[in-house]
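User: Show me sequence and structure for the first protein, then do the same for the second.

Assistant: Starting with the first protein.
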Amino acid sequence: MNARQSDPAVTRQFAVEVARMAASTRCHEVVVLDVRGLSPVTDFFVLASGTSARQMRTVAQDVEELAGARDYRPISSHGYEGETWILIDCVDVIVHVFNDDARRFYDLDNLWGDAPRVEWREPAAAAATATPV
């Protein structure tokens, strides 16, 4: 583990960067879950739904490049050969890129429903997508 990964604020910022990058590459339903204290293996999950197998692989490759640049090199990745779910394990941040069917089937959003959601959108973008009360 490097010094960057031991700092929760830096790790959270990396998860936010991954979410923003996924959203900017046409992923939808992007969510960052803070699973510190709930998961014994990681601190944050980034969940995203892709539009096609090719797009999912591109997003996963982009995540791996960003992770390398930020000293969060993945220790493993799985699912590149499939079309349903790609997982990139950056130790303190685990990224899941699903197709829509797999996202609904595995329902990690609900499985980890006790985890606080981390706001990852820029303040202006978050205000523009907020639902009026």
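Switching to the second protein now.
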Amino acid sequence: MSNYENPDKLEQIFGHLVDKYESLSSDASLEELSSLATQITEVTNNYNSSITEEGQVDPSKKIMVSLGYSNDSENEDPEYVYKSDSGFDLRSSEGIIIKPKEVELVSTGLSFDIPRGFEIQVRSRSGLAVKKNLFVLNSPGTVDQGYIGEVKVILANFSNEEVVIEKGDRIAQACLCPVVTGEFVDFLQNNKNKKTERGSSGFGSTGNN
């Protein structure tokens, strides 16, 4: 890939050209100004051509993330319904009844090989929350990068009626999210003398509304 095809390089070149343009003396020749303006226009056009009409990076230049998985259930494999979705559905691999005000651990039959620097967050499905008062109790539940076992969902029934979960029912959604893991963090003893604008002000410190 040449510098004129790499958006990051194009930004660097553009910045260099602008700095050069601004540093020209007031008595610079028309030829110098014209040449520099032409170069700036060329770089700008090349940069814009690497961006689609929707303002998104060209798909050929996107960095894709591979999420390995194993499906030991009878359910269909995980997938995003729409490419713009943040999460994909988790389905129950068993039939189960959740009694009112009780909590059950529901199997999905799925396990994942989560890439370095990511975690899976398990969240409630809005439809179940609104229609059946069924929530992922620890939402968002965390599936760490190093966990390779089956993903199970902690479902809580906050309604006054039994909720029947059938095999294959969508019970939660999973989001693959970037995260700073322990290998990148050094704990430093807190500096008690550190001063900030907010200080130790906590709950309600910015007002009641």
